[in-house]
Each structure stands twice: as C-alpha cells, then as structure tokens.
Amino acid sequence: MDIQIIQNKIYEIRGQRVMLDFDLANMYQIPTKALKQAVKRNIERFPEDFMFQLTEKEWRELVTNCDRLPSTIKHSSVLPSAFTQEGVASLSGVLKSPIAVNVYLSIMRAFVAMRNYIMQSSVVLAELAEFRSRLLLVERDCRENLEAMNDLSEDVRRDFDTVFEAIGALSVKLPEAKKSRQPIGFKIREKE
C-alpha cells in the first residue's frame, strides 16, 4: 500500500496523530461495523491513549476543515473512533488476516515517515530561528556602524569648518607687509 495514501488518512486530533475507524476498515477491507465489533470484543487492548471516540465538536471541526473525507461519512450520525499508532498496532493483533498484517506494516511505515518528516522540519525550523537571530545581530551591528560613521563624519565636518574659519581669520588679520628688501646679487658701489 502506498505510504502517501496512508499519510493522507492520518489526522492531528487532541495533539496526537491518529487514523479514523472508517479509513482503517476500508484499508483492512472490512466493514466499519465489523472493525468496531472486533474492538468492543477486545476493549482491554484499547485504552484511552490507544483509541478514543471523537466528540461531536471534534467531528464537526474535522468535517469542516478536511476535504479528504468521503461525502458519505461526513453526514454519518455515528461518531468515529480515532486510533493512535499504538492503537493501530493493537488493532492488527485483533484482526488476524494476511491483509491486516500487510496493512499494519504499511501504516507503521507511514507513521515513521511522518515522524521523521516532522523531526526534519523541526530541525529546519530551529536552523531558521538561529539564522533569523544572527541576521538581527548583523542588522543591529550595521545600524550601529552607520550611526558611528554619521557621528564621525559630522565631527570631521565640524573640524574642517573650524580649520577653514581659522584660515579665513588669519588671512584677514595679517596685512601684507611691505618691506624694502635688499636686492639680490652684486652691489655696485657708487664712485666717490
């Protein structure tokens, strides 16, 4: 049986990944009523953490949110039972047929594949979170560097303005001195 088909029949209800009784009955190629009877005959194998019945609210929510459900099931007056991975394992012990064994193995592979996918997704999410935090640090550092550069260039501009003002003040204050300079070269003496 194709793992992808099985994964499409696994739902998240009450924080657990579960399969519904009608999907399991369909996969085991038996009527849902026969599956429920087998469970009732062996109810001690199905504690609350292995199997539970959906509430009216949970069922309505699932029907509303999930378009994969068969239309005949959506309007059923009987609330379905949900089986966890452990419940599916117990169910395969109750339904003893070659089909049940093959279906059980396929379902277990699907649950394992989903668990691996979720674990990989959580690793990717953790890496993304770390990348985000590093990016925020780089962004903060860039902002601080830019502010420091702006402060520095303002300081440099002020210093240049001060230097130019000083040069301007000096050029106004110092008039050109007119001194007679001694000529350069040989001196010619006047004849006496």
Automatic annotation (TrEMBL):
<dbReference type="InterPro" id="IPR018873">
    <property type="entry name" value="KilA-N_DNA-bd_domain"/>
</dbReference>
<feature type="domain" description="KilA-N DNA-binding">
    <location>
        <begin position="8"/>
        <end position="94"/>
    </location>
</feature>
<dbReference type="Pfam" id="PF10543">
    <property type="entry name" value="ORF6N"/>
</dbReference>
<protein>
    <submittedName>
        <fullName>ORF6N domain-containing protein</fullName>
    </submittedName>
</protein>
